[in-house]
């Protein structure tokens, strides 16, 4: 929709709200603009246009009520223009007037959202991956349908260690010894994997580092071209979400440790097929980029239907590398330099949500 003058009109301000979470979020995203609020007459709140009000509504009521399931995630509340005047949610008493302000100014209505079942993991290729008798069929598809990416000789990436015994010893930054392999997302018993990323913040999150830890970061350099299977690629598919391999793989890598049997089987199959490693979406992609899992508009996946779906999905996916074996020992990677990393702050920026609805 084109922007009109009325879209730029100030409707509310951050001081209009009783709920502390709404007030803080409105202050963070609103405009610093002189003049009194047309609703509460306050002069020092941040001003909100219709766009701001809708953004606030989305973060607080949709983002703030989203729950993860074993695979996938879905919000409990949604809103749209069709539900204006027909809201069916039961908020806390202090939120009632805030909600009315939001609904009337943006002409939207909140309602309990029955998620489409694919959003909570009802995706055929994912169910087949979970079934040991069908798993290998899907893995064969993964190996052929995802593209190969070559990481060029000389490329650098980071690898972090918390409390290494000898921080200045390059060997500390190789994959764990074979005897210790089998605890992570992609390594298995007797099959070590080196995890790394080109984003230092992601390394910090991935190894759950805290400000109390003694942390070292190695900058590693590839000594030869590496042939990797790129699982962060957005597959072009002509099927529904229920049949989507793209969504299945995306959900797999955003799931917690109950999913590791499957991701380990994919890594082993890629190794047997001659790949040097995988590029996979970081579990922390969403935290780092501020994205939202399986964002939908009227139940359709934006990952698939957004006019610029590929850029959209890529903007919200941070690639991690997993290099098979022990690349430092095998001389395919060398340590370029090692630094101590002093954390002063490990931050999560977030948003608020309601407590009852
Ligand atoms: Zn106000």
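^ Assign residues to that structure.
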């Amino acid at each position: 929709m084109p922007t009109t003058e009325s879209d730029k009109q100030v409707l509310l301000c951050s001081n209009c709200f009783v709920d502390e979470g709404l007030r803080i979020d409105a202050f963070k995203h609103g405009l610093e603009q002189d003049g009194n609020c047309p609703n509460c007459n306050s002069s020092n709140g941040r001003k909100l246009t219709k766009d701001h009000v809708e953004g606030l509504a989305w973060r607080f009521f949709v983002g703030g009520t989203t729950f993860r399931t074993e695979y996938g995630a879905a919000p409990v509340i949604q809103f749209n223009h069709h539900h204006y005047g027909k809201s069916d949610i039961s908020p806390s008493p202090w939120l009632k007037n805030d909600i009315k302000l939001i609904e009337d100014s943006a002409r939207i209505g909140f309602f309990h959202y029955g998620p489409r079942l694919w959003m909570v993991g009802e995706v055929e290729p994912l169910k087949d991956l979970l079934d040991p008798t069908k798993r290998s069929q899907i893995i064969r598809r993964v190996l052929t349908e995802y593209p190969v990416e070559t990481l060029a000789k000389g490329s650098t990436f980071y690898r972090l260690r918390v409390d290494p015994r000898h921080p200045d010893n390059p060997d500390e930054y190789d994959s764990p010894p074979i005897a210790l392999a089998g605890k992570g997302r992609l390594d298995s018993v007797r099959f070590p994997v080196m995890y790394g990323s080109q984003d230092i913040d992601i390394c910090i999150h991935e190894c759950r580092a805290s400000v109390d830890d003694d942390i070292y970061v190695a900058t590693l350099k590839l000594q030869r071209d590496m042939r990797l299977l790129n699982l962060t690629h957005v597959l072009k598919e002509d099927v529904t979400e229920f049949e989507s391999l793209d969504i299945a793989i995306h959900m797999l890598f955003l799931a917690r440790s109950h999913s590791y049997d499957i991701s380990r089987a994919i890594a082993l199959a890629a190794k047997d097929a001659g790949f040097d490693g995988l590029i996979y979406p970081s579990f922390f992609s969403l935290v780092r980029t501020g994205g939202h899992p399986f964002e939908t508009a009227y139940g359709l996946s934006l990952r698939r239907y957004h006019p610029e779906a590929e850029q959209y999905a890529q903007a919200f996916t941070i690639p991690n590398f997993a290099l098979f074996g022990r690349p430092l020992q095998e001389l395919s990677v060398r340590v370029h330099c090692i630094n101590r990393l002093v954390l002063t702050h490990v931050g999560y920026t977030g948003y608020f949500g309601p407590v009852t609805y």
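Residues 12-13, 15-16, 37, 39-40, 42, 45 surround zinc ion (CB under 6 Å).
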